[in-house]
## 1
Amino acid sequence: MNRGTSRRRGVGSSLLVVAVAIVAGLCGVGVRSLLDSSQSTTFGGTPAPPELEAALAAAFPEDSCVAATDGELAVSEILDRQEHADWRIALGTGATDEACVGALVDAGSRRVTLIMALSPALRERLEILAADLRSECHPRDEAARLVTTILDEMSPPGWELRIGGRINAPSERMEEVLRHIDAGCWIYSGTGWSADGTRLFWIGGK
Amino acid sequence: MRKLISKLMLAAIVSGLLGALVIPAAAGWAGNNTCNTTSGICVSLDDNNGVPRAVTCCSDNTYVGDKYFNTTTNIDNTVSSVRNAFAGNDVTFHVNTNGGGDSFCQDSGTQDNDLGWFGSDFDDKLSSHNKSAGDGVC
């Protein structure tokens, strides 16, 4: 009789230990989840469907100038063909028929945005100049003159050259470029646009 | 009774630790911290593309709510250096959400080590970015 009671008490206490262990374990997971949710969120959106990205890249090749109207038509046909009925096309900054456009893909918003792009000829000239300015040493005014000469000749009007502000270079050459700049040389640092649609170009140095 | 209480305490401590440390959390980090790959868009809180850092595969129309990897630091309006590690895609960075405001184009395979270099318009101001289809924007 006493042994039976004792055994039942033993089983009961074992069950209690297991129950406490499960509850405590769940509490631990909860604490971990709370910590994680306070420290991290997803950065970036949803990857675009690869076949969509590939078709868009083919429609806006690096060596061709696609105007906005043609670009819009091409994107529309791709979206129809691939049955992305819930995607839309947006005209972004500088997307006109007077300029070349490229396509930005945002799968999170299900949107393809056409945006101003450099013409293939201007991009090629600037890439050559950028390489020259990384290998030869030109002071600020000389670098500005070299960029301005190309833009006067090849860029649509209304551009603006900004002195300083960005040091942009191929990743594998950045250390070398920083030493170049320390020596007083200036580089071509890329392009962009202001909120009002003005095409911007940068040179960097110090 | 004392033995039972000790067992309960031990079970609670061990299980709590196991739950917190060993069992994977249900909601975890979806990005990573690696910026030396051949594909990815990296943003860093400080100059020179160091850590704290966040890396993604694709466009992000708002940085609001985003944090650097394993930190509680907001990405929105705090980025000081960026890298586009894609070999065949340009990336545009924007001062406003949804691709608006002043913007710059990061050519494939390039980086900006210091957006605050001599009074940039972009240091601690970025709020979104977009990945291009192909390499023909910058």
## 2
Amino acid sequence: MDARDENPAISEPPADRAGIRFGALGWTGLAVVVVLAALPLFLANFTIFQLTMMLIYAIAILGLNLLTGINGQFSLGHGAFYAIGAYTAAILMENFGLAYGWTLPAAGLICFVSGFLFGLPALRLEGIYLALATFGLAVAMPQFLKLSVLEPWTGGVQGIVITKPDAPFGLPLSQDQWLYYFTLVVALLLYWFAANLVASRSGRALMAIRDNPLAARAMGVNNALYKSLAFGISAAFTGIAGALGAIVVQFVAPDSFTFALSVALFVGLVVGGVGWLPGALVGGAFIVFIPNVAELFNKALAGAVYGVILILLIYLMPTGAGGLVRKVADFVGRRMKPRPDR
Amino acid sequence: MEIFIQQIVSGIATGAIYACMALAIVMIYQAIHNLNFAQGEMAMFSTFIAWQLIAWGTPYWIAFALTLAISFIGGVVIERLVFKPIENAPILSYVVVFIALFAIFNSLAGFIWNFEIKPFPTPFGSGALFGGLMSPHQAGMIVVTVVVLALLYFFFRFTRIGLAMRAAAVNPESARLVGIRVSWMTALGWGMASAIGAVAGMMIAPVVFLEPNMMVSILLYGFAGAVLGGLTSPVGAVVGGLAVGVIENLAGTYIPVVGPELKLPIALLVIVAVLVVRPSGLMGRKIVQRV
Amino acid sequence: MKRRFNSRLVVWGALMAATALAATAASADETTGITDKTIKIGNIMPYSGPASAYSQIGKTDAAYMKMVNDNGGVCGRQIDFISYDDGYSPPKAVEQARKLVESDQVALIFNSLGTPSNSAIQKYMNAKKTPQLFVATGASKFGDPKHFPWTMGWQPDYVSEGKIYARYLLKNIPEAKIGVLYQNDDYGKDYLNGLKAGLGDKASSMIVAEQPYETSDPTVDSQMVNLKGSGATVFFNVATPKFAAQAIKKAAELGWKPTQLLNSVSNSVGAVLKPAGLDASKGVVSALYLKDSQDPQWKDDEGMKKWNAFMDKYYPDGDKNSSFTIYGYAVSQTLEKVLKASCGDFTHSGIMKSAASMKDVELDLTPPGIRVNTSATDFYPLQDMQLIKFDGKRWEAFGDVVSGADTQ
């Protein structure tokens, strides 16, 4: 089982279309960005907090999408990289007094290295076996974080409490609003980077490896290097999301990063659409809001309701939101094309 | 030395639990070439059904047989209702549906039977074997696992249906061409996997006590064992499960400082290491790719 | 001339508006969630996830609030009890706490469960000056009024209980060789640290084995084998119900008969000792601060009768064998008493003040001799415990009530 069996329709490189880099999003994308930027002005702090978490998970899913959707490597362990990023930020901020802004590149760098290092032995593993290895990583992470030998840095089971930053330069924004805009800008930057990566030669190499690794190798693509790099970049994205998450939630502890997080990211990926980068936002929204919706129905059976919602979503959109958008776009496109004369 | 042997025996006893679960996992893999993450929860749910039957006064072996039947039918129903409609969906979507089933069964079990631990009866009596390192039940569990394994082996190797199921999983298109009803083979596979899962659950519950979260960690170890042994080999699954139990115990006892805190990660590390060297597991068939 | 006058007016106006806003904000803070007719109380419990067994506490709390409402409420107000699930995940707990405080506008958060979840929201609750009352965890960090004046624990903290066991051992079995099985998290480590602190210098010589386990371990058989092999004569069982039961059962199977000390989280007869085996549990020593519903000595006890009536009427689906339903009733009754004592100053700080001035308060479910005590410097409401020994059928109290306070 591997992502090669994925519906290939979703993952057409955006460059195959009218190749404006920015235009990968198009006008709809611009509208979405404008709405996202305007929201905090109208909403309560708590909702802004939730939206910030949505953006953060979207970044994490973006990273996962690069690995699974674009490069075809199945990962059930991205929660581990999220955790590494979060702890990097927490330790640098609380133990070393680093300003929160610098923790992001630090987290990104450390996660890139760890992702790359993990990708190397993972080269020999395919499909199910890679899934198990990443699964192992996700399960092992909370145990590592609890290790008594590392306690002086990680705070052990108690975790680390983080001070929330204020808006800089005395801007008239609440802490939540500031963090939201900060996250939004980071998210847009990372999306731009991801979209460009996918549209570039490297992106095509990654996709070639996904679709047919033997052919890719025959064409001169260095599979080993690209696959490990894919792991590294993907981990970096998720690590940056983790760092942001730590700052926004103001707390890290081993229990924050259990296997459930990796599962949630994976579910968000599929719901958003594997291989469709903007789907990350849909996935992020799903992770943050659907469990609350399920709880509204029935607190005791919230889990069952969540499962049922998930199954229904897969019925309706087997290839995720991305697939749905693609279908709608095709439909509209066909309707708008002039009928060819027969 | 004594502790060493004791930990090995104890590891085999615990490993029997993983082996049971691993068998169910391999069974479903044979049927659908996919790992069912909800397998543990389904097994747990079946065990609760058995518990309820026994609580209502049914004798143990009748409850056992009834539960097997109910689980088999349940597995088939789930396949027809939940998976058939999405059979053309990509594999990752399948995995999400497994996750959804996990959430549903776990939540339902907690809702119907609450989260307190419940003792589950054992048909093998009590007492002590090997100086208490293994109970009669744990020995019985190993025997049951081997029996199920033998039945499976016989089924796949020597019966028509078994052959048809293997064919349907490996190459559905060719199988259809020779007249095999592929989708019913899949349903059958699900039914059998559920039934084996129910056996696993009923064997495991007396040792770990029955509660809705009983199978969550066992599933992990079961996967580990199944993959270590090779997903295409039921014998490998059992061997793998036992091996994981032993490795885990030895790691916890002999690796200083971090050993007891990192038992599961170490077991998983060993498995990943084995996979890197032998990608199809210890006893799996090598997959050859034609260019 | 006119301009300057105008600008000064503007500045004054702005200043007054700001002060008014700040004033209303301040007073709004003090009475958020409190109206003439209602008081909103928030609660966060793990209804899903690995700790879902504890959700019975939340359900018991909710049922108790309903009973209070049926009996006229508190200070003439009905209780609006809002409980959310955090799945035992700290980020989710933060989200739910913010939802309760900012969106639902509760007056206080009561009995939120779990050390990680409470650690995650502690700073926030104190910044928002909203009481985080009677948290459902025995971690000692939640009784720190100097740094966190709005957070208070309730049950005897784990460190104190560990010290109580240490003193018992020093007095009765000074030559003991102790083997400890502990859950590898804050709960387990707190107990272990309490034991060590209580033993003082003798800790390193008396403790011969420490075996941690993770909640992801299916069984603790391996650890028990190691503990037996260490030659320990006393077994300190710091495990949650499922694992505690497994441990007791395994010890019996291994033919290992040390003196067993069992932590109070897992001393329920119905939920732990029965599955473990009543014979196997003979002689186990523990400590309690609440009555056990299975204990026949409380059959005609007034408090126990009230609890039984409550369970029958308000929470019939609840498990009477479970210590969680006892716990939920007891902590909810404590809140009821605190609220009723605050009628004169029914604000956030008023309620906090009442919580911090409980003197020898008796609850329906505390055995005689055990009282709730708090002060401005003592944020550990329950510190008294009674040592008990299991005789194969029920827990027998022995010795005097020990106060964790003098072991602090």
## 3
Amino acid sequence: MSTIILATFLVAALLGMPLAFALGFSALVALPFGGIDLNVLPQRMLHSINAFPLMAIPLFMLAGELMVRGGLAERLIEVANAFIGRIAGGLAQVTMLAGAGMASVSGAAVADASALATVLVRELSKVYGVGFSAAIVAAAANLAPIIPPSNAMIVYAYMAGSSVSVAGLFMAGVVPGLVLTVGMMAIIYVMAKWRGYPLTGEPVSGGRILRELWRSWTILLMPVVVIGGIVAGAFTATEGAAVAVVYALLVGLLVTRRLKFKDLPECLLNAAVTTAIVGALIAFASAVTFLVTIDLLPARLAAAVRALTSDPLMFNLLVAALLFVVGMFMESNAAYIMLVPLFHPIALAYGLDPLHFGFLFVFNLVLGMLTPPVGVVLFVVCSIANVTMGQIMRHLWPFVAFGFGLLALCIYWPPLVTGLPRALGY
Amino acid sequence: MSVGGPTVLARLARGGLAAIDWTAGALIVLAMATMTTVVAVQVGLRYGLNQSLDWADEVSRLAFVWAVFLAIPLGVKRGSHVGMELLTGWLPGSARRGLFRGVALLAMALMVVVAWQAAILARDQWDEPMSTLDVSVGLFMLPLAIGAVHSVLHLLAGLVSGEPGRAVTAVE
């Protein structure tokens, strides 16, 4: 039955059927072969979506929508500008810092890529050219699923089951996310010096920093309230996401005053449709997961992997190599949904730390969003900045290479990932 | 028998589908607003008044399920559901349209089965109440049947036109 599912899925996906429907269609074809009733399909679909933890995804999406409509993103850029001042690659550094700031309240790279590209690409292009500018926006937006909150981590934790806490996984991303941000800013500095880009911005002044901090303190407090509340156990990730929505709504309506009540229906609808894309994947994949599980595929796969190696590090490297290839060709949500139920139990059997393995899994696929031919963040930035993927990749590869270097470091030195969550009791 | 017959029919079909889309959109907005409000109020009540609503979890999940399953067909309409274009990208226009029509037909078959089976399950569960509210638990399954039928309509529209919508959307 598993072979039929795999073959049907691959053929349907290659023929261009959306991945969610390809998963559902492969399950539909396999059901009669297993002598299983057709009503398993809607039952599994509903069972997978009817889950409180998943509600964090539309809520964080909605918070992101409200932030963009409410002008909170522009405020973050102004704060970053005050801190960066007049150094090499200044405006690009501002983009990276603003990307990190947005990542701390939004969980989706695509939403951040859309916001940053719309607001910044034109200004960046005047100084650095459109290829470098688009590359910077793509790299900055890709921080969103690494720095908490992260929709990718929510999906991972949901698919992995009770052994992974969402808040613990959020905390696992903090230190690598900060290292990635600082590292990419250093790369911008070197590239700007090397290429002789002109200086931008004004010299750093304490007065201006204080002024910007005062003007935007309500926005800067948002991640402290939301992430702090989740980590402190004051509320769950889903409740934290609802708090983020209310917070962004109040700031947009009362502080920046850019948000209007008439914007809300469109924000709610956009968040729902975007969630439905991953929702469809989860729903149809759950039927597939059910079928391959009763066909004992995970157990057979585990036995095959254990026959290959008994070394946990080697297993980690094998998974990293597989995800590198998968990330290039498959949309990352589809990959979490199909592969986490297969590999997470094997990782536990190897004695690997679930938070460590989970973070590596997410980080690897997040980097895949920046690699062609299927790089969803690249698609968004290309369409908004009106550049080709080749133009972006010429400037983006040092950032992608640094990301994979950091991934290797995280594999070999787990405390970089697990140190903070363990210190916080996860 | 008039020459303009099919055009009028097509216009009526498009208008009907647009009305269904509008209704689905309104229901989705309502469901999302309900979900957000209930979860936020639950947090507020817990810390503000040291109270909680028994039905908050079930109602918010119900609203979420409605929002997701009703929004799937709007994703089909916008062409937002992610897929691979490795093969289709290389094909000339007419072959690509033909392939898209074939794929849409298979997806329609899938959604017809989902709608049919979900409707049967919703009917079978209709007399069973939810655990915290005196309303049918079949309301959880109903949006799956409705969303699947709505998806079939959009896939049919794509089948006729031979052109999928296009957008890039994801939640990473």
## 4
Amino acid sequence: MNTVLKSVHRIEDIMLVLLLSAMIVLASSQIVLRNLFDYGMVWADPLLRVMVLWLGLIGAIVASRGNKHIKIDLLSRYFNRTSNLLIQAFVSLFTAWICLLIAWHGAHWIKLEYTDKMIGFAGIPAWLLEIIIPLSFALIGIQYCLISLSIGRHFYRRSKIRSGLRE
Amino acid sequence: MSFAAPILLLLAIFRSPLFVVIAASAMLGFYSEDIDLSVVSIEIYRLAEMPILLAIPLFTFAGYLLGESQASTRLVNLTNHLLGWMPGGLAIVAIITCAMFTAFTGASGVTIIALGALLYPALKQAGYRENFNLGLLTSSGSLGLLFAPSLPLILFGVVAQQMNLDQPVGIDQLFLAGIFPGLLMLILLSIYSMTQPRNTSEKRSFDTRKALAALSAMKWEIPLPILVLGGIYGGYFAVSEAAAVTALYVLVVEVLIMREITIRQLPDIMRNSMVLVGGIMIIIGVSLASTNYMIDAEIPTRLFDLIQRYVDDKLTFLILLNLFLLALGMMLDIFSAIVIIVPIILPIAVGYDIHPVHLGIIFLANMQLGYFTPPVGMNLFIASYRFDKPIMTLYQATIPFFVILLIAVLIITYWPALSLVLIGG
């Protein structure tokens, strides 16, 4: 399980770096081509826009790995560690539920796009461009399941140690 | 429906990721009107239909690169040699460098972390009071938000463009509109700094040789603002393309020419910057869905009618707006605040005959203050951590700066021409 997780993380990291580098090169060459040679690659602009979507959502997957999403933190200072962990476990489950719900309905939409043979641009099927949406939300959902699972395991271990001490 | 709002609010203040709270509220709305929930994914796909969004990852990456390089040291060095001889010189150096650095890196606290380490000991050595130094650096952490190409300015433009207003809001217009309000803040803070007592008799004079050396150390970064703004207003490229040029330029300068960042460091810098971008983009994505629902349900219109029953003039509305935004800036970070609140208040403000570009400047100026408004302004905690001082000390130290910038915010709010003169509005 851990090795699977690690290789998924590695793939996400590599994709981020590749996408960002490609975007810098592609966008810059567009400007050079247009201003110096009065020439533009027609497919470059829609491709760049889709890359922004992919980059953003993969970035969001990586952000959920360390629970680094933007959130309001007003109250955690007033609670002790145990209550904070319990709150975290509950909130993570809620997050997972919402994300998996979006992924589920998104997958249905992708299926329709696939059967309707919708085309995105330059002959690329639309579902291929859109698939990152259910995929990323599914992965974020799984990530938050893992977060609450690891909190649950923490409490289980602690109660075991305590009961061990009593005996 | 009515029980859901308090539950969502509770989940939000108990640290649910904000994108989840926004998505949940949109889904609840669509569900109650029997609209298939796949609409959320379809709305998120609109991220791929907005060319301007390209600017967000590219400017962010360029900012992270600048933050990792020695550019901050060189910038302080340069301004110090140019301005250090003036009364209050070093404090003005701090104000200007923080503003320039924040404009490029975003007010994510990186200014306090990167520049604070240099400026805090320097100010101390120059004989300024401890509380003045702490207050200055904490409040400077968000200074420069109004200057191009700051991310919040771009994001406000992105959100405003979704609203289909009669007056379109261009990001290049926002860049121009921010200049004078931003300068006003710098000037007021500089005047205050000049009046500060110092317990040192040391007098410095201008040293041409050292100033030229510092200028030469900075020769690759100095063209950057000219390149960005000149390119946009000279008509050579769009804002999103300016971001690509900036990213490429900074990459070449810091990695290949100055060699302050190694190629091995690049993947980590890219990854870290894209985590922030991911956090922002997913919020924009789900908020496209929630905004769409809100407009369909005519929530801003209904809210406007409600407010108009009690507030019938522009002035009262602006006063209430200031109070509301100050409270908001304390609690929400600037990106979420823009994405969640702007779609609601922008149509209302336009109803009160406020120019959308002016509203953007008012909004961001208020948010900038919120960064160090006690008790929960984010930069207060970052500074407390960075300078290892109790949070109460920082509350005290920032009071005069809060008052000065509050005056600036009020001038910006009630004098629209200051923002609009450059765009001819």
